[in-house]
Amino acid sequence: MGEGSADRGRAVRDRLLLYAVAGAVTAVVLAPLAAPGYVLRYDMVFVPRQPLTWDLVAPAQSLPRAVPMDAVVSLVTQLVPGWAVQRIVLAGTVLLAAVGAARLVPTQRRGVRLLGAVGYAWTPYLAERLLIGQWGLLVAYAALPWLVRAVLDLRAGRAGALARVVLTAASAAITPTGGLIAFGVVALLSPQRERWRRSTVAVVGVAVLNSPWVTAALVTRAGGTSDPAGVAAFAARGENWAGPLAALAGTGGIWSAQATPASRALPLVPLVTLVLVVLAAAGVGLLRRRLPPGISARLVVLAGAGFLLAALGAAPGTAEVLRWAVAHLPGAGLLRDGQKFLAPYALLLMVCAALGVERLVTRVERVSREVAGVVLVGVLLLPVAVMPDLAFGGAGRLRPVSYPADWREVAGRLADDPGGEVLALPLSGYRAYSWNPGRIVLDPAPRYLPAAVLTDDTLRVGDVAVLGENPRLREIRGLLEDGRPVAVTGVRWVVVQHHRANRVDPATLAGFEVVYQGMFLTLYRNPSVPPRSVAVSPGQWAVVAALGLAGVVVVAALVALRRRPTAW
């Protein structure tokens, strides 16, 4: 009894220490979010209450890059204000990434687990995706170690494991990339002769969780192909003298220089990456011995596949193949920004590196326990020392701001007189507002305004313009280039955003009347277009059915988990 109580007490202390360290990392990374307001940066757009519109659930004329993420946020913000949702999501992402990675490291040594926690929560991958605002992808990144652990429990026949697999995969599947990663994990790791029924159910369940965005992609009028110019624009980028493959080896290499911490350009970074890879190689043997037979090899395959996808477009000879695929194969556009798929590699790298440090420390302990302790602490702090500018919101790049009152006023006018499309001018998918100083953000109008909002889907990366897929926007863009009024397109509303109002040709607004004029926004109405109810296409109903089916799977998992209490 005494030994059992001591073991339980030690386990509790270890868990409390782990959560304390993970909480400290979270607080350091997201410190600026203690201030009120919304962090608006690149793809990260939260609004006070996101309306649930058909275009967010099932975009009719654009690719479903944010399905079902936008629908989930819309539902949640009906109950919880957007500023709180943003903080819960970001803090939960960093905290759970750290805890999940630590618990996945197969070791009894407290310090080694803490190394896995800090390493996985302080990667260039997390930093770069955070600074580019892709929080949905980071949710999948945080869910990944928990999903791997749940699949291992499923293989071991533990109670509630199937439900945990489905629930964890559901959080990853809020974005298409996260859903594909989750499907790959379950499809590769779960198959087992002895429990083939459970593994089949798990694979089918995760496939169903991906059905909302797959269905939306099948029914959209945007088509499934993309501009091949995006291959070069979104290819992995070298961050220092060592080039793009070395950047990927260190879990970095995102295509946007503005989303890269400045410390990644330091000349010593590739050498640190080399040390990390060597430590990981040293830890593979321990991983193989401590995991069930064959699992470590499958994890290596999963990580290798993610690395290869990340290198597409950057490795010699692959760019032309990818350009052809993007232009001719529906859905291949998902591979343009291949660095997104690096998450499984990042997880395996950090878990194996932690085990490699365990081997190193064990040898040093034979000489001196004090020196071994110093080595462990030094390696624990190495990720922070090499990339200190992730701290405090990427050295101050994540700062909350408040929306001007104009946004609330325009949203209220549209809610009082619903119906018809809203065109956001000047045409630009990303905007730099004076009230969000120094930061570029995806136009908030589609998420803030209770209407179908048309915003430019052309993405400019340096001097390269990557054309979007929306046929309606192509029509409107052609009219604007010809200097013709957009009233002829049947658009009922126009919102002019004044940060670039001088670029809106007055001839464009011929036939419109001013409904509201503020310091930052002006709302125009086309009196020749009467209000009309929003038409719902059969394709949109198909997406709703897919969302419902995915919801049923999640609810079933929750019920199963409740009936079979189990520790996470």
Automatic annotation (TrEMBL):
Signal peptide: none annotated. Keywords: Membrane, Transmembrane, Transmembrane helix. The chain crosses the membrane at residues 16-39, 84-105, 126-148, 168-189, 201-219, 265-287, 299-322, 342-361, 373-395, 541-561. The keyword Cell membrane does not apply. This is Uncharacterized protein. It comes from Salinispora arenicola.
